[in-house]
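Example (one chain per record):
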Amino acid sequence: MRPLFLAAVLAAVLPGSAFGAGLMARDLTPQATRGAVPTKMFELVGAHWRGPGLVKYRTRNLAGRWSAWRVFSPEDALPDNGRERRATRGWRIASPFWTGPSNALQYRTVGRVSRLRAYFVRSPRERLPLKRVHLAGAPPVINRAGWHADEAIRRAAPYYADSVHFAIVHHTAGSNSYTRAQSASIVRAIELYHVQGNGWNDIGYNFLVDKYGQIFEGRYGGMTRPVIGAHSEGFNTGSVGVAVIGDYSSTSITPAARAALVSLLAWRLDLDHVDPSSSVVRVSAGNPRYRAGTAVTLRAISAHRDVYPTSCPGASLYGQLAAIRAGVAQTGLPKLYSPAVVGTLGGPIRFTARLSGQTSWAVTVRDQNKVVIASGAGIGASIDWTWDSTAAATALYTWTISAPQMRSATGTIGTAPAPLSLQQLKIAPGVVTPNGDGRGDEAKVSYRISVPALVTASVLDSLGDTVATLFSQRRPAGQSEFTWSEVGLVDGRYRLSLVAKDDRGKQVQSIVQVYVDRTLAGFAASAQAISPNGDGRFDTLDYSFQLNAPAHVRLRILHGSSVVATPIDAALVAGQQRLTWDGSGLPDGRYSAVLSATDSLLTVKQSVIVKIDRVAPTLRLTSFRLLRFWVSEPSRVTVVLNGRAHVLAIKRAGYFRVGHVGPVRAVRAYARDLAGNQSRQVRGP
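Predicted structure:
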């Protein structure tokens, strides 16, 4: 059958990276016949599909020649189950394949394939020389800036393990036909496919090595730090993943690649003092070979196939791992292996390690001022020394295990005392009015300290002089508060100062402004409600207050936040004040009466709530036998039983009963609300 050329649907064109690199995704129609997809130029191809079937493909280069038919190999270098796997859940992911410059894809499906999506990655060759970084003791590495990683597409910050415990060797299973100048383009294309195609946070490998011996930094986060990659599902945490670019199922890696791999592994494992000839026990996070929680014994330099059902890193490279492992063990000697510290501060603490040969060694423990407080030394191929830390104070100490010409091991013991801090200092109210009216006569002060400390509270005047010391006492860490009462200061502006001093003598201070003002006192209303309906009951009320000094006084009536009346706005002399208000012109409702007095220092406010109510309450006798009533609002209810009156204060609307012993011959009752409005009288029987 003649090949069918499809007008493929462009699913997404993702943002391009530096130098014209980018990824294009196309949804294709699964079919058993051959379909050809013309597209823009690309250098790497990948695919995702649903179903148990396979996808075969070939690509056309710019000269018009078609490659041999290949099968998209399912990707086996994967992140652990979690955030990075969500985007491709339910899809089968193909390993990316470097095709070189191409412009068309021909494909066919074998078996059941329900959906198919192809990814075309453009990653042109760099015209600029690659930049290498040189770290102490490390081989030259082309860092991410050197191969122009696209940092803008990273999806999350890196995650870190406690340490690197072993290495896992991979191959990318792609083409071996690439030039030295194309290697950086391949790394950048893999980054684009892993991030924009697979939805991972970043490129999966920690390092990559090409057949020319060039070493590339992989996943972002720091080459010397234990960055968790996405290369060995179930065993990404605590491992460093190194991929050799190419397919080494039947082809041997080049001497240059092998030398680079040996030097890289020797340096990276030595950073974490891992013996390349040793074995480690790691617990699987879960994959098709090892269920989550399974403890697995692995070599310090393992192959991907040791932890996952895969042929990676290819039979040829796998067969050379024993020799590579031996080469790593002999590179960079002498070395210090497996440093360990067992014990807790306040008791014996044991330091152990192994050395690659007989030599002198030393263990030192320093405090936070870098003063040596304990040390041990010896000669041999093993280190075993115990520090009696019984007399050591609670603090953070740094230990070092060292030997001549070896990378020292360091770590910490104990915990650093939390730094002293004094935060969240608040005073309420900020204006203290100690005039005996029960409003603002005292203030509550709250604060938080990070560690136990001696806290001293003082009041400072405008010159910064202490005019009162409120207390000085030791307080525990956390939130504290105290009440400032018996304020004997003259009216004025002050600063409240809190000083905290910890056991080490460190001292911190926090200050908040406070005012003392006695000008306004005792603002009150003669009634809680008025009923300005002309019946002579509660038609008006009196507002009263005391001015202890001349002030400009303003009384505003607020409904919600809106000012609806200003009964007074005038300068008044000192003394007792009284104002009658009738609420005229205002509808029934709840109002706030806010009185402000402005003197030479500031404005002080007090407020009361008042209700305007012209509607009489409703009272019903719902059961004569039970003496049960219902009232529409809080009221004073007068009930006359057998000629004798009883007055009840009903605090909320609803049903209520009147207690009585003996027969009831007659009852009558009425209700009067807070505004003096009286209900109609009810009778029974």
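Caption: Confidence is low (pLDDT under 50) at residues 1-19.
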